[in-house]
Amino acid sequence: MDSARPDARSPSWAARAAAGRRLAAAAQDPDVAGLLHRLLLDGQDTAVTQETAEALLERWDVHGLRLVLAALAVADDDTGDHLDVALGNVCHQSDEDLARLKALASVLVSDADPAVSREAREMLRG
Question: How much is the pTM?
Fold first, then answer.
């Protein structure tokens, strides 16, 4: 995982995307969360955004979803579209997946970050 930190800043989109996948395993670590947030909002290649988001969502926990929702709250339209695609790819595959996603979102409705809370409420409405 230590090699993923420098890769998160690599000029190569493929290295950044791979770093996002590896770093997602430690999403609960505040230092790693900051790197993941940057990768989710990668301004150079939306493949980095989508790969990182999918890895975070595949955790199926509050930490991963929280980071994706925080990025979604501030993302431009193009990046937001790729975050939405990642949500669809991972979380909308079955009724069971949708139920799991809604359960996680219901926890985040009361998140201390108002942007995360707002996105969680929107998700539950949708």
Answer: 0.96
